[in-house]
Amino acid sequence: MKRPKQVAERQRVDADKSTPWCPQAVQAAAWATGNLPPAEQAGYAAHVQQCAVCADELAACRRMVACLRDVPAVGPEPSANLTARILAALPAQAFRPTAWSRTIFFVRQHRYAWAAAAAVLIWLAAAWLVASVGQTGRIAQDGCAWIASHQEADGSWDPESGGGVARYRPALTALATLALMREPDRYAREIAAACSALQRAQADDGTFGPDETGRMYNQALATWALLSAYGRHPEYEQAIDRSLAHIRMRQQAMGGWGYLRDGADAANTAVTAWQVQVLARAQQAGWVDDGGHLRKGLVWLRQRADGRGQFGYTAGRGGGEGTPTLNAMGAYTLLAAGGASAELVSVAATVMDRLPRGAQGACAVEADFYRAFFTVAAWDATGDRAQAGRVRAGICDKRETRGVDKGSWTPLDSWSKVGGRLYATSLAVLTLQPQAKDTL
Amino acid sequence: MEPEIPAGTEIDDRLLMARACQGDRDAFAELVRRHQRPLLNFFRHCGVSRDAEDLVQLTFVRLYRYRDRYTPRAKLTTFLYLLARQVWIDELRRRHREERLRRGLEAEPAPDTGAADRPENGRMDVAQALAALPEGLRLVVVMSIYQHLPYAEIATALRIPVGTVKSRMFNALRQLRQIMEGT
Known about the structure:
The structure holds two protein chains of two kinds. By secondary structure, chain A is an all-alpha fold. Chain A has two domains: 21-69, no CATH class; 122-439, Alpha/alpha barrel (Glycosyltransferase), CATH 1.50.10.20. In chain A, 62% of the residues lie in helices and 0% in strands. Chain A is elongated, with a radius of gyration of 38 Å. Chain B is mainly α.
């Protein structure tokens, strides 16, 4: 389809044809000026022999071109100082190349080499990514296999067999179940048995485990596991209802949660973060937060962060004392449970800015499974896959590669004396899970 | 390692431009020396008499300013005439603004003493006929006949299809003939 301008040009030409006309006459000007392509010259020459119009046009064009070329150069020669004048008119910074301009021209001049190098790099990076993800996946699979092999006949896990504390059986069973959910089809039977065990372990008032200082960890993790299984197992709805009711009941007036039922101890950031995560996931699964417990919990948590990006442990002690684990946990909870609240995202971002970065930061994180899990989840939530990947690689390196505990992780951090090898292995598998926030 | 520019040899414009862009003032000066005369003729054939050197200067300042947009695959002259055309268009706009202002200020319009005035005998020489051509046609003639640019380069510099260059040249030659014959 011709453009309007071309059509207009054509019409102007046609309008002039008061004399006999040939559509090939425009070629005459091209030939006369030396712009007729060689491939068309012979054909047009033959045409001119047969066409009086084109013969006349060609002759007229040649005369006019010759006439134009005979016009002497107009005006005098350039001034002697024209070059100097032009150079003086350039900006003051001219010819003081910046590193940026040098880079642009170096890249431009070698664009094909750069493109080839970039293609090779991208291919290598993709290959490395596939290999590393594949390796991470295999290591996580080995961890799941170890966890599954240590499940008790009743579907729960025995904390003491791996060096943990008995009263945390619900929490550790839940943690192991969440880890196995990495492969829900392969471990469908184990997951169902574990959830049944949790359901059986629940008291009539909705609680899990003995009423001691670990109660709210048991409560949060057991509820979390049942919520994660709820999609495939709607039969757990009542158990979840009762458990959520207990969590809401234990919320203190200011919005936080503490260890003890009677509220004799102050609410703290760690226990509160777990309960807030559970309430947020319950809301996502369809439970209505009638009493505003989630909102109050988020407000309490947000108030624990000071302006410098540090989470305090309790309201009384305020901010400024945050450990890296507490900061990662707080930031991740605000990001994962706070929805699209701009204020909460802003607070979380301030905290994230203070988290140690780079290889050194990752090295410090890897030594603590609890800290590693929340740190990786926080990096994932902010889209910093590189930083999360560094921590994951360090976690991979710490697995047992031989002996009876092959595939598991040796408990070495401060929580290990409570959770033992089951805690270490379950959290390590959950940390290796891409997008940990979606699972836990 | 960049090749050195041997003294006294003809260096490709693209290499000179690349060196200039890397901060080589001498390379840019060589480009100015090489292209200032053809550019001067270009503007004079377009109808500029007194200020042609100023327009050449403006063109080279733009060449420096837009140096990052030049890709070595294209001929430098194409890029240079594209800039020259823009300078010329800006100049025409400036002249039209001045003309409107002058006409607005004067009680009676000044007599038109332009080069395109038709002589009393009704016939013009080639230069007068060229000046009387519409701007679009004149640029094609000047670039082809006096700057020796092939149609493809003219098309790039004027941002029009090659076919349009071809038809414009044909129309231009016809109109020149008619103007000179006084028909």
